[in-house]
């Protein structure tokens, strides 16, 4: 009976050791010293397990008891070490998540950066970039380009910008808030901006909260905008990564 109980305990501890080994592998920053210490624990467990299995039913009960006590002590020690290891892994994972969030934030800022309209000089430099003339010389030469030529380069720059926008589409516009929606519907004709602002402000203040609520974007509009924004971000990030990979 004692041998059976001891063998069960030993089997359980070996399972624990296997779990510990698996957990250790997942900890990428686990030190070599800690790995060697755990390897020593596994060997101790295996040694005492072999000792228990080799004792007969009528064998030395004292030796069995001593072996079981040794395994129990190792068990408690290893559980404590496993708890410490789990904490270290959790801390490492939290740090990794934080780093990943920061990296994604930087990626998002670059990928969703608005496309700026290209000036004429940029089109001029782009067209002559392969001529072998240094960039500083091209910039100086620009001052000698005629007005007609500058106009041609501006048209070229506008064309490049339009082509860019077809691929790098602008961010979807969010639905107007309640006040902006009210302005769109009630903007008076034939008056100055100052007078129009004054009239609209007075009309808005005269509305009840319930009436103002009616001008807020609907749930469907907000859901549609959220879906469009999400799809736009995913597309822009992929375009940015593809463009970066080609460089």
Automatic annotation (TrEMBL):
Q: Which residues form a coiled coil?
A: 75-110
Stated name of the protein: HMG box domain-containing protein
InterPro entries xrefs: HMG_box_dom (IPR009071), HMG_box_dom_sf (IPR036910)
Q: What is the superkingdom listed in this entry's lineage?
A: Eukaryota
Q: Which residues bind DNA?
A: 172-233
Which species is this UniProt entry from?
Metschnikowia bicuspidata
Q: Which Gene3D superfamilies match?
A: High mobility group box domain
Q: Which residue intervals define the domain HMG box in the entry?
A: 172-233
Which Pfam families does this chain map to? HMG_box_2 (PF09011)
Write the record's keywords in alphabetical order, separated by commas.
Answer: Coiled coil, DNA-binding, Nucleus
Q: Which GO terms describe its molecular function?
A: DNA binding
Reply yes or no: does the keyword Coiled coil apply. yes
> SUPFAM superfamilies given for it?
HMG-box
Its GO CC terms?
nucleus
* Protein's UniProt keywords contain DNA-binding: yes
């Amino acid at each position: 009976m004692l041998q059976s109980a001891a063998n069960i305990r030993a089997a359980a501890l070996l399972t624990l050791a296997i779990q510990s080994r698996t957990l250790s592998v997942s900890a990428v920053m686990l030190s070599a010293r800690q790995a060697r210490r755990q390897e020593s624990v596994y060997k101790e467990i295996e040694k005492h397990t072999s000792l228990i299995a080799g004792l007969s039913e009528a064998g030395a009960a004292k030796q069995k008891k001593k072996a079981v006590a040794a395994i129990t002590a190792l068990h408690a020690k290893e559980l404590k070490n496993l708890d410490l290891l789990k904490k270290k892994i959790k801390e490492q994972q939290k740090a990794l998540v934080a780093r990943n969030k920061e990296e994604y934030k930087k990626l998002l800022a670059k990928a969703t950066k608005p496309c700026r309209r290209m000036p004429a000089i940029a089109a001029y430099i782009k067209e002559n970039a392969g001529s072998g003339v240094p960039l500083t010389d091209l910039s100086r030469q620009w001052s000698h380009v005629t007005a007609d030529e500058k106009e041609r380069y501006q048209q070229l720059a506008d064309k490049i910008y339009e082509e860019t926008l077809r691929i790098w589409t602008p961010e979807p516009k969010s639905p107007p808030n309640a006040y902006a929606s009210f302005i769109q519907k009630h903007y008076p004709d034939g008056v100055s901006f100052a007078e129009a602002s004054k009239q609209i402000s007075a009309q808005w203040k005269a509305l009840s909260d319930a009436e103002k609520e009616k001008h807020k974007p609907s749930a469907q509009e907000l859901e549609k905008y959220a879906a469009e924004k999400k799809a736009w971000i995913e597309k822009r990030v992929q375009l940015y990564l593809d463009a970066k990979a080609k460089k």
